[in-house]
């Protein structure tokens, strides 16, 4: 059964995969202000299926961001928005910069900093949110590459483990987006879902959205009546 | 159970609600060539859930078109594409022009012409398609207005009846998009789904996509594995 | 007989229906600085019919504004301009946000706040204007929908009642734009006048302009000689 | 009393003063296709005041055109549109080119050609129109300059005399736009109505529109009911 | 004989007739930074005829400016540039606003303010310039209208008299641009030189440039050798 | 004394130095259709000084053209325009391509072809022009480089000799633009007049215009009266 | 030793990796008409090192092309250009479409067609070129992915084998670009050289250019003297 | 042997020849942030040949800058970036302004200021860099003109002497770009390498890049393995 209650406010934060051209400063409201990625899709499915609940979805993704960047804007972009639910998907750029600009080491966020910062943000949210956060969703970052020996995929899996560990430790709902992609990658080559293995097509965003919705008890068979 | 078979080609044709900025001349392929409306959403859900089937989705919607305009391009835009499945949603502009430019009567497509032309296109497709069409889906046009006494809504319902009658007569699958919107409109005011009551938000497109998928046996609980 | 006197300055304030792409910061002067909606039309009819009066028309409408937003800029955008006459038409967005983004409740301006704020602005203008305001015109907001059972129309009518009440209480001239539209809607479907039932065509702006001019004694039979 | 009957189609043809950014190839329909000059204003006043008549207004003005250019497109742009009423205002560029590019004599349309061509077009319309033209309106060209000794104004007055003569000869309704402007010019300097004394402001367009409407019996006191 | 000496710096200040799209903040240097009006022409003729002198020409015209606006920027745009020679042509907008926006009286600069301000700027320049100004050129504003009974022309002539008076009083070189235009207007209609009678064509700018050069002793028969 | 007579039509043809953004297909008329290079300057000086003559100046320059390209368009761009006077300045690109894309030899126009083609065009014009050409002006191409040992300058001088020879042979007026530039280059480095030594600044265009005007008897001391 | 002779013309043909925004219709000449990829780099190194040879480099790459597309334009884009040397690098899109739009099978060029078409083009060039082709360079397509088990890489290697086979069979010079990339990929992750593993950075283009130059005997130690 | 060590950071600073559209504020990273001139070429050749070294190249060129401008930004744009190696090429605009805007003397940087400022920057870098600078490369500015008697070339040679003197005095590596261009100019006319003799084509940038790489021991025969 859907875990959200009437009028719950659900905030998503992350990087370009979350952003998808959302409005500034707050990604909510008319004219696709919520962006056209998985967040828009989640909102569309929630609103069309549970119109009576009036779930409020806010997209606070920012292209290029790493967990280090989220920390800079956590107060204004998460705490001040007073979410009932918060979903975090971060880590792609923390890792990618290690592989696409390997010499610019000051731009890399290595796994220790990643874990420490992410946990700090989780704790801050749990402790400081008023009203109290009803639920936290941690989504693993993913790399659309099935070869686990690939260096960037291997790193991604390590960061994914951090997310899983923190979800368990802090009682958050876990969304294993990498696992969801892996199932599809058995049938489709990575280029079908993303030329750069990072920014998904609509089908890729559907994979993320459906993983998220599954984790919060979304019922597709429900009718709005 | 999903009615599509491996490698089936599914063509959607219609007006701006179908179009959603699809590529020209054929709405298929990389870079959102399929548009970002309900067709894109259908494709995303099919590909992410049934990647092993390799369903091929083609968007041939054109903004502003009426059934009279579809007739002009039926050979190139439907028959020549050799669809296995064809979905038609047309009628909004046939009616709307009667209400937004009432004096330009030569632009109106009244119900007799609507029914005759639509049936002609259906028959042409059934008879001429090679390979033989596996399935035809007729989707009613809709107006996002719950007041059945509203003049445009009343006309829309009459055209919807035509679609239902033709679906029954020719053994097509019927998608009653108006009924699907009506359920949501019990909870939401029309402006939430479309400022002009015609062009839907993402949530509105999700209503259409889900109605369509339900009619062809889409199974949300299936896993790609 | 026209109530304006030689060289009177007439300021219009409101939302997008007033704005119509006026110049910033002050909507007055060359090159359609006054916008091309009902304000431009009022100015055109005044200047062409009463050129000897030198009436000065200023457009201070701002798209998207609610009465709450007018309050923020009342000093600079009304009081500081030293109007002889002031016309206010506000309320559409105060209501619309309740219907198009129902979950974002902090953006809604409910009727109590609407009435209190509007009255506060009226009083402030009457009391603080130097030179003394010669005349105040209160124009009801409108919704181009004839069905009074429509939820947004019903709300609009309530806000319209507030405007009428305040006009009576403070001796302002009342322009019942909703009544003017209702007469035309007996003959034309709403889509002819506005796709979204809010932003009028040129014909819709003519309805507003003519209602306004009637209320201030404009004489169409007068010749400029 | 208004001379137009229910569903009459009224075509305006002329130069840039008529054009005002109308749609191509035919200036009629949604989204200000009719342009935002005096034609748009005429349409707005007709539709808002006589909505029950369903008058259809079409703008076929083209910037820069002279009577010689109208002749080139008369079949497609007038006859083929089957107007019930036709309004012609031409001559400004026929004259202006004599004054702004005096050496390019092949671009000048002198008064003999002007008169002969205009009469030819009038006769062609009266004789060939099917259904029969109900009414013809001839509008003088104008120059927003009160000094009758000004060389271009003097020439304009001669061309205006041609229009008056042809109106009388062929039983057309005459609209003396120059006379209408002259009345306003007693009170306003020409620059208030047009920097170049040719292309009017909104107030200038109101002068033209009101002259036209007066000539066809428009009743401002009528209510749409 | 040319009054300028080797390496003299010549600053022009004025309105849009001077400006002609000059560079900001200082109109001097490569890529037509000097604008393409009469200032550019003066510079081109000086440089091509007296290349050995290295005359430095600076354009400080600003579109829309009146003498009141020049006063605001006199320190930075004239004094700080340390001109050897200064040419001023101002007044068109001081007058034009009285005729094109007659109701916006706070934008008008009447003749008393015009004279007082212009004299103040002249005195400030003579007294404060270091190094001492070698020469001051006062150019009358002009209106490309030969009819001296025209209201705006009549006003222009009054302002022109002010310029002549001040030139005589302060020993400045006078350039009577109006007289120069009047000679040409005996042969050409105003529209040939400027559609709005204010902003000249290249030929109009040549009239100004040649008047200026004549006043400073430019010798066309000189060869650069 | 000026050699042009009342209403003479003067056509300039050439390359980018002539073109300067002229209008298409014919460079004549309002809004700087004549371009803003030396042709515009010639026209401005002629019109401002001899307004009573009504000289008609047409600019048919096309960027990048060589004599070979002129030949392609000679009928439409020269003969059909029925010039009274024709001025030709061509050769820069014929030579430049030999130096900036030396390997693309099919783009080079060597001196034999240059001379033969130019003479062919001259003869064609003299023989076929109706009405008979009153005067032909041949302008040498130029290179803004004083070093005669420079390879491109040396070639330019050879082509200039061809122009001089043909002028003498066919009784044309010769304008030695190279000589005019050389005088100025004694005082100014080439970069002051053109960064690429080909496309002149306004000062450079003034050098060309003045050379041309001198050759046709232009009198700077004349007043328009 | 460099195999090219004085004035040799070298044509490159291929897809987007070759194209890099070259000019149309022929990629040769001023202003980077040759594109800024490996072809531009080859030209830059040839011209700077062997300026005395006047090697002429032409870029005929077209984005998105497959060998099937090259066939369509082979006559105009290769034969008609009369190359002395021809370099072909094609195959990426022939393969990529199999992986990024797997359902659109008519867009795939499978290995049999690839080999047959490529050989046909080679033979046509050898047989029909006049003057006779001096040298043919066949460059393997490449995929910037070191994992040979990757499906697309595996396919790429098969197509590379075709190229090697044809090079051997027809006596062409072989450039094994894949091998060149593989060496670098031992040290750098693929994302450093291309986000999508196809379109290289400048460093990636340097790898291709250097492989090509090595194959034709380019000598980096040579000085232009 | 290449003088750079693993992970060395190499900063280039200069004017537009260095800039070539690099990213702001720091020219390093993805998407050609490094610009597409000689710096991009150096980086491409280093990365493709020595991928194991991870050399980090940063482009800090700014169009139009002179040594005087470098001084303004030396702290942020050089010192703060903590380069291991620094390459400076400056002087073109210091000289060019003396020749293209000779009258604007305050924009000229004469040789005394050039030498003093350049030495000051060198000393500041050597003394203040932490970690200590490993190597300094001084590149002469150049002018693509072989005639040493040309005034701007002669001046350039004097500034080049300053660079050579300072390189010798401070133990910097010298890159004589002028000498490198001179060798090529024996075979090619200057226009082949730069229309304005300053901004090089790709071939010109290759000349600079190869001179630089030669000076730091780059080995073209090395393979990345």
From TrEMBL, chains A, B, C, D, E, F, G, H:
Molecular-function GO terms, alphabetical: phosphatidylcholine lysophospholipase activity
SUPFAM superfamilies in the record: SGNH hydrolase (SSF52266)
InterPro entries associated with the record: Ester_Hydrolysis_Enzymes (IPR051532), SGNH_hydro (IPR013830), SGNH_hydro_sf (IPR036514)
CDD domains from the UniProt entry: SGNH_hydrolase_like_2
Organism: Paenibacillus baekrokdamisoli
Pfam families (alphabetical): Lipase_GDSL_2 (PF13472)
Listed name of the protein: Lipase
């Amino acid at each position: 059964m859907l875990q959200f209650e009437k009028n719950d406010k659900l905030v998503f934060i992350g990087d370009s995969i979350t952003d998808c051209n959302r409005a500034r400063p707050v990604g909510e409201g008319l004219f696709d202000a919520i962006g056209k990625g998985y967040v828009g899709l989640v909102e569309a499915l929630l609103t069309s299926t549970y119109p009576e609940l009036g779930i409020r979805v806010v997209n606070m993704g920012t292209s290029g961001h790493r967990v280090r960047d989220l920390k800079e804007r956590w107060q204004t972009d998460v705490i001040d928005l007073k979410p009932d639910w918060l979903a975090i998907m971060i880590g792609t750029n923390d890792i990618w910069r290690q592989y696409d600009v390997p010499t610019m080491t000051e731009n890399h966020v290595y796994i220790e900093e990643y874990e420490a910062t992410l946990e700090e943000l989780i704790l801050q949210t749990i402790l400081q949110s008023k009203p109290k956060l009803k639920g936290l969703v941690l989504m693993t970052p993913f790399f659309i590459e099935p070869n686990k020996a690939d260096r960037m995929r291997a790193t991604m899996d390590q960061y994914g483990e951090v997310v899983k560990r923190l979800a368990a430790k802090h009682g958050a709902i876990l969304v294993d987006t990498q696992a969801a992609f892996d199932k599809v990658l058995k049938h489709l080559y990575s280029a079908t879902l993303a030329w750069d293995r990072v920014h998904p097509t609509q089908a890729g965003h559907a994979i993320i959205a459906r993983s998220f919705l599954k984790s919060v008890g979304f019922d597709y068979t429900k009718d709005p009546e």
